[in-house]
Amino acid sequence: MTADAFLFWFLAILTLGGALSVILMANPIYSALSLAFTMICLAGVFVSLNAYFIAGVQAIVYAGAVTVLFVMVLMLFDLKHEGKPFSPGVASNALKLVFLGIFSGLLIGVLMISHFFAEIDVTDKAQLPQEGSRALGVALFQRHLFSFEALGVLLLIVAVGTVSLARSKGGTHAKH
Amino acid sequence: MGNDFFEITVNAIKLVVIFLMIVQAVPLLVWVERRGSAFIQNRLGPNRVGPLGLIQLLADAVKFLGKEDAPPNKAVKLLYYTAPVFALIPGAIAYCAIPLSTPISVEAFDFFGRHFGPYRFAMQGYDINIGIVFILGISSLAAYTILMAGWGSGNKYALMGALRASAQIISYELALGLSIVGVILLYGTFNLTEMIAAQSGPLAFRWGSNQYVFSFLPNWGIFFQPVGALIFFAAAFAESNRLPFDLAEGEAELVAGFHTEYGGFKMLMFFIGEYAHMMIASGLVVTFFLGGYLIPGFTVDEIKNWVGTFINNGTAVSAVVCAFHLLSYLLKLTFLMWVFIWIRWTLPRFRYDQLMDLGWKTMLPWALGNTIITAGLIYWSYQ
Amino acid sequence: MPSIEVFTQIGMTHYLVLSGLIFVIGLAGVLTRRNVIVMLMSIELMLNSVNLVFICLSKYLGKIDGQITVFFVMTIAAAESAVGLALMVAVFKRYKEVNIRFFEHLKG
Question: N or C: which end of chain B has fewer CB within 10 A?
Fold first, then answer.
C-alpha cells in the first residue's frame, strides 16, 4: 500500500464520517462542528490532489469563516425547545431514502461503468505547473477576469442585502 | 519528510524540538510578563523563589498540575475536555512553518560502512510553498477552541465571552489578511523563506529607470509597508486575544470569559495557546517586515565567507552561520514579544463597539487602501 | 473484476465516487432535516462535493480552470450562507425557532 493510497483512504473515511455526522447529529451545534471537521478533511483531500492554494483557501473561507458563523449563530439562538430534528412521517421518509438509494446507485454505477468499460484516458497528465498558485493567478486575472469582477459586484450586493436583512431597530448600535 | 532513515529521523526530531520550544517558552514568558508588568507599574513582582524569582515558574507549574479537576455540573463533557487540547494544536502547527534560520547543509559522510549523501536541513518544521496561506488557514481554526470551551462550560458568562472572542477573531482576520496582501505583492511569493531572501542587502528600490540605494538602512519590509506593518501588528494583537483587545475576558462584565470554568492544567493549556499565538504573530512580523533571521548590514554569503576564514569544514561552517542567524531571529522575536507585554500593561481595554468600529471602519479601509496604493506603485515603478 | 488494485491504485474514479457519496449525504440532509440551519449546512456539503469533482478533474485533465471554478463556488457559497443566516436570524427573532415550517409564513 503506497503512501498516496493510505492518505486517500484515511481522508475519505474521515470525510464521510464527518459528513454523516453532520446530518445525523440531533443537536445542530454538533452538526456544525462536524461540518468544520469535514471541511478540514476536504482541504486534506485537495492537498492530495496537488491543489495547495485551494486547500488553504478552503481552510480559511469554509472552516475559518463560514462554519464559525454557523456555530456562532447556533450558540446565539440556544435552541432549548427544539422539536423533532428529523421530518415526521415514516412512509415519506422511507420513500425519500429509497429514492436517495436509487440516486446514489445510479451515480456510482455510472462512474463504475465508465471506469471499467469506457475507454477514457484517466491517467494523470501532470500538465499542471508545479508553481500552482502562480498559474492560478494568471488564469484568474487574464482569462476569467470578467467573472472575477462580476463576483466582486455580487459580493457587494450580498453584503448590503445581508446587513439590511439582519439589522433591526434597537440593535447593539442604536442611538437612544 | 526525507529520502532515507537519517533525514527522516532528523526532520521528525526537528518537529518535536520546535513544539517543545513553544511549550518551554511559556514559563519564561510568564516570568517576563510578571516581572515586566511589575517594572511598568513600579512594583517588585515575584522575587522570593530563587534568583530573580526564576524558580517561581517551577512552583507555578507544580501548582497547575496539582489542582483538582472540577468540571461544572452542566458542562458538555466532550467539548469541555477537548477544547484545551485543541487550543494547543493550531498554534503549534502554524509555528512550524516559520523559518527560524538559514538551512544547515550536511556534507556526505560514511557511518558504520554506510554512505550518507549530502543533506540540507531547513531550520523550520516544514517548508511549504504557500506558507502564508497555510499559516492563516491553520490559525483561523483557533475560533473553534474558544467556541467549544464557551459552549462546553455550560455557563452563561463563558458563552458570552466565547461569542465575543470569536466575533473579534473573525472580524480582525479580514484586516490581518488584507494587510499581508501588500507584502505578497511586494515580494511576489507566498513562500516565507523567499520573502526573507528578498529582504537581504541595503534598502534598494527602482522607480522607472532609476535605481535608488540607501546603504545605511537594511532592505526590510517595514520601510516599504509601514501601514501594512502597523495594521498587521494591531490585528495580531486582536487575534491572540491580548489586552487592549481582551474583550473575551473583561473581568468586570464577564467574570473571565470563555475560561471561567477552567482551572489547573486545562487553564495552562489555554495559556500556552495564547502565548503560541503571540509567538506566531511576532514571528510573522519579523518574517514580513523585519528581515526574518537576516543580520542587518551583512548578507548570508558575507557571513558564510567570514566564518569560512576560521573553519574549513563545510558542515561546521553552515552550523555556525545558522547559529548566528538563529540568534538574530531570536533577538528580534524577543523584542517583539516584549512589545506585546509592554502594550498589554500600558493601554486600557477597548469597549466592545469601539473594538468593532476599529476593526471594520478603521483598519479594514486602511488595509484596503494600502493594498490598492501598493499595487499601483508596484505597477508604475515597472513602467 | 475487483482486485487488490482497487485499494492500492488511487485514480480519478475514487475521488469521483467520494464526491458522489458526499453529495448524496448532503441531499439526504436537505430532505430529512427540519432545522433550516442544518439544511444550509447540508447544502454546503453538496457544494463541497462539487468542488471536489472540479479539483479532481482539474488534476487529471491537466487544466487549471477547474480550480478557478472552485474559487468562484467558494465565494458564492460564503455569500449564500451569509444571506441564509441573516434570514435565519430574522425568522428566529419572530418565532424563537428555526424550523422549516415557519417559512410558509413568508408568503404574503
Answer: C
Query: CA-CA-CA-CA torsion for A128, A38, A22, B248, nearest 10 degrees?
Result: -130
For chain B, list residues with pLDDT below 50: none
Note whether ipTM > 0.90 here.
no
- Measure the CA–CA gap between B27 and B61, rounded to whole angstroms: 8
B382 Cβ contact list (under 8 Å, min separation 6): none
pLDDT confidence bin for C23, thresholds 50/70/90: very high
CB neighbours of residue B53 within 10 Å: 18
Q: Cα(B210)–Cα(A32) distance, rounded to whole angstroms?
A: 56
Determine contact: C6 vs chain A, CB below 8 A.
Answer: no
pLDDT tens digits along A81-119: 566 777 777 888 888 889 989 988 998 888 888 877 776
* Mean pLDDT calculated for residue range C96-106: 73
d(CA A125, CA B177): 34
Which subunits count as partners of chain C given 3+ CB pairs below 8 Å?
A: A
- Strand ranges (DSSP E) for chain B? 101-106, 109-111, 114-116, 119-123, 202-207, 210-218
CB–CB contact B130 A133 (8 Å): yes
Q: In chain B, count of helices (H) and strands (E)?
A: 15, 6
Contact C35, C98 (CB under 8 A): yes
C25-80 residue pLDDT tens: 999 999 888 888 888 999 999 999 999 999 988 888 888 888 899 999 999 998 98
Side-chain-side CA neighbours of B59 within 13 Å: the count stands at: 10
What pLDDT score was predicted for residue C51? Answer: 93
Angle, vertex CA A43, rays to CA A39 and CA A46, nearest 5: 135
Q: Does A85 contact C34 at a Cβ distance shorter than 8 Å?
A: yes
Q: How far apart are alpha carbons B326 and A64 in whole angstroms? A: 32
- pLDDT at residue A176, rounded to an integer: 46
Distances (CA, A) of B329 to A109, B14, B91, B273, B284: 57, 17, 19, 21, 11
Of C1, C20, C93, the CB nearest to A111: C20
Interface of C with A in 28-47 (CB under 8 A): 28-29, 31-35, 37-38, 40-42, 44-45
Q: Chain A contacts of C11, Cβ < 8 Å?
A: 115, 122
- Does any CB of chain A come closer than 8 Å to the CB of residue C12? yes
First to last CA, chain A: 68
Q: Which residue of A has its CA nearest to B352?
A: A172
Better-predicted residue by pLDDT, C108 or A168: A168
Model confidence, pTM: 0.88
Contacts of B16 (CB under 8 A, 6+ apart): none
